[in-house]
Amino acid sequence: MADAVNYNRYLLSLILSHASKDQRIVDFGSGIGTFAQELDKRGFRVHCIEPDAQQAAVIASTGLPVSTSLDEIEDGSVDYIYTLNVLEHIEDDSASLRRLRKKLKPGGILLIYVQILFSSMDRKVGHFRRYTRRSLTTLLREGNFHVLTDRYVDSIGFFASLLFRLIGNESGSLNHGALLFYDRIVFPISRICDYFLGAFFGKNVLALAKK
Question: To pair with 123 at 20 to 30 A between CA atoms, which of 44, 85, 88, 134?
Fold first, then answer.
């Protein structure tokens, strides 16, 4: 997804909108540290959590602090945690949310961004489930979080994902040209439509919660 410039720019803007430089920030499920590196360039303190050893090694090579487990983070020490398209990969998501809550300070913030439709692509990348706005907020409340806001994102992308689910190939692979078209043309239009449709449907769910 490195070529999805507009999509990644939007996700970075989400992270930055709730971050401040006096905070201790955790990127949970960092991948190769794409967003953590952008925050680090801007002077934010970010600690990456990435269980995949190879990807963690890539992050370490950039000089960013990285751990392969949340257990390496002290309880009650974090101001802000963000996790983007990660909970889908975790079999016991409710247990993970309880662990994330333990790491937050009182009043600490958790930003979650997840996807809602399930297709052959999900099986390829190891997703266990998708979410709805209601199911995500219910999960957060059951984990003793106070939900500050929740909404759908990428309303037009919902229909693109639905089409891929219906007619996509069994391998779950994405056409690179289609990805670029979606990112450059469809996604910017979709973000405008979200102002009107974000309460009802979208390709993703965004939630902000407080300990």
Answer: 134
Q: What is the dihedral of CA 10, 64, 100, 109, to 10 degrees?
A: -50
Domains of the chain in start order, with CATH, are 5-210 (3.40.50.150)
31 to 36, 53, 84, 147: CA distances (angstroms): 10, 10, 10, 26
Q: What's the pTM?
A: 0.89
Q: In angstroms, rounded to a whole number, what is the distance separating the alpha carbons of residues 80 and 25? A: 5
Q: Cα–chain-centroid distance for residue 44? A: 18
Q: Edge-to-edge, what's the strand order for the sheet holding 24-28? A: 66-67, 45-49, 24-28, 78-84, 104-115, 204-210, 146-153
Q: Token pair of 34, please?
A: 């794409």
pLDDT in tens, 65-89: 999 999 999 999 999 999 999 998 8
